[in-house]
Structure prediction request, 272 residues.
Amino acid sequence: MAMYSINDLDNRLQPSPLMPVMFVGHGNPMHAIQDNAYTQTWHRVGEQLPQAQAIVVVSAHWLTPGQTHITDAPKNPIIYDFGGFPDELYRVQYESTGDPDIARLLAKQLVEYEAELDKQWGLDHGTWSVLKHLAPEPEVPILQVSIDYSMPLPQLYDLYSRLRAMRRRGVIFIGSGNIVHALGRAKWDGGGAWDWATQFDADTAVALRDREIGKLVNPYGTWSEARIAVPTDDHYRPMIAALSLLEDGEDISFFNSSIDMGSISMRSFISA
Prediction:
């Protein structure tokens, strides 16, 4: 990986007040085109965000085992990374720019992890389905940072924490996934939440509120419901990313704190 002088890029992002970090439970891709309680809340949260210089998203749908990638294309294509949905969803557009210089700044923070710049990836649905509501007409660059799916959660927490200082340079960070994501047990025809989903979601919320990081980076060793609530941790990892970006003692507030389709936690949080 090329080494970049931070001095070459200092003028790209100016010092700022501490920008928010949030985790968004994104759930079903159909939320991108629906008007419901979840998307209405995303609109309200988006309207309250301060003016940023960039938005950086860690999505459950960009997994790069053994590596960490950062988008650096000047213009972001949309990726329709799903199948079997109505044609309307495949016609959604979300016009946004990237920024190669900001990508280089992010990579500089992750130099120990040899993060790679990536012009091929665009915005997957974990990003654009949420930003369609949070930032319908983006005025700042949007970038994604991938998830090293082979990295243990404690090390992943450390990796993303290296980006924390960028929150004081105008960057809003968003993790996009789901704390409970058990699609194989989804109730497609409606019905209430499974008891194990409700319990795991509630236990995780307490651990988040109390910043019990040791528990959160070891869910399978902490909560008996984890194996069924988090059968694979691809959607859980963006929550760890958002958690790692919080400053010591920083509070969070929850929104969309409910279970969708019986087994998908939409619980989200934002720094307060």
In short: The beta strands are 21-25, 54-59, 69-71, 116-118, 142-144, 171-177, 252-255, 259-260, 264-265, 268-271. The chain is about 30% helix and 15% strand. Residues 1-6 have pLDDT under 50 and may be disordered.
